[in-house]
Amino acid sequence: MKPILLLLLQIFLLLPSLSSSIRTNYTSIFSFGDSYTDTGNLVILYGGLTATPGVLIAKPPYGMTFFGQPSGRASDGRLAIDFMAEALGLPLLPPSLASNQSFRQGVNFAVGGATALDRAFFVDKGFKAVSPFNISLSVQLGWFDALKPSLRSSPQACKEYFAEALFVVGELGWNDYTVILLAGRSVDEAGSHVPEIVGNICAATERLIEEGAKTVVVSGIPPLGCAAGNLALMANQTGGVCLKDLNLLSREHNAQLRRGSGAAQTPACRRRADRLRRPARAHHRLRRGAVYNFNLTALCGMAGVSACADPSAYVNWDGIHLTEAAYRRIADGWLRGPYAHPPILTSM
Question: Which of 41, 196, 220, 329 has the fewest CB atoms lying closer than 10 Å?
Answer without folding.
Answer: 196
